[in-house]
Amino acid sequence: MTHKKEYLKEMGIDIWQDKSRINDASMTAKTSSQNNLEDIKKQVIACKLCDLHKTRTNTVFGIGNEKAKVMFIGEAPGANEDLKGEPFVGRAGMLLNSMLRSIGLERTDVYIANILKCRPPNNRDPLPQEVKLCTPYLQQQIALIQPKVLIAVGRIAAQFLLNTMESMSKLRGNTYQYGEQKIPLLVTYHPAYLLRSPSEKRKAYVDFLLIKKMVE
Ligand code: URA
Questions:
Q1: Helices 91-102 and 201-215, interaxial angle, to 10°?
Q2: Candidate of 52, 59, 88, 161 to mutate for ligand 1, largest count of ligand atoms within 8 Å of Cβ
Q3: Ligand 1 mean position to 153 CA, how many Å?
Q4: N-to-C CA span, the chain
Q5: What is the pTM of this model?
Q6: Which of 4, 55, 63, 196 has its CA 20 to 30 A from that of 49?
């Protein structure tokens, strides 16, 4: 690290790097991060930290571009995701794909993960203890991917990531900062909610336009 960077770090000033100007050294770091994501995935596959391993069909680690600028974080796998081992693959996932396309992105351009890597039985809400045990996996994924923006998908994900009990109407529309890296975080509606309340899609589109603006 250069002296200047060391000083800035000591002063608690974050050093932001434009990914389009990423240098060779950090490209190397990214290459090794791909291996590390594979390592974490292996740990998740073997994970028995909570009881959800007893009822899962597959773990659902996360999928997408490991150098993504945008990382979506949902709550937990549902039935389809548990069967396929991939996040957001049911009807809600198809809507998420369409919303991505509406701002010129494909699923393969972004990274998609959940807070919990295993399906809670009957799609019940995650228990605080399950979140506590599973969050280190997500934190490592975020640290390796280094997205420019995080998107909390739905109320449960937003409340856990922001450590709040505020309602979606209060949480949406603001930009937050996540973790020590102070990664900008936006909150948007869960696509399953949008399937039930299609009139809210307009607001979700506004969120997606903001995502586009933040990564341009
Ligand atoms: N809902 C989520 O929060 N995540 C998924 O992967 C699927 C549905």
A1: 50
A2: 88
A3: 8
A4: 28
A5: 0.84
A6: 63
DSSP letter string, 179-206: TTTTEEEEEE--HHHHHH-GGGHHHHHH
pLDDT tens, residue by residue, 115-155: 999 999 999 999 999 999 999 999 999 999 999 999 999 99
- CA dist 214 and 200 (Å) reads 22
Other C-beta atoms lying within 10 Å of the C-beta of residue 204 = 21
Q: Annotate 6-55 with DSSP letters as a single string.
A: HHHHHTT------GGG--HHHHHHHHHHHHHHHHHHHHHHH--SSTHHHH
CA 157 to ligand 1 center in whole angstroms: 10
> How far apart are alpha carbons 168 and 86 in whole angstroms?
26
For β-strands 175-178 and 111-114, DSSP reports them as unpaired
Domain ranges in the chain are 30-215
Distance CA 117, CA 137 (A): 9
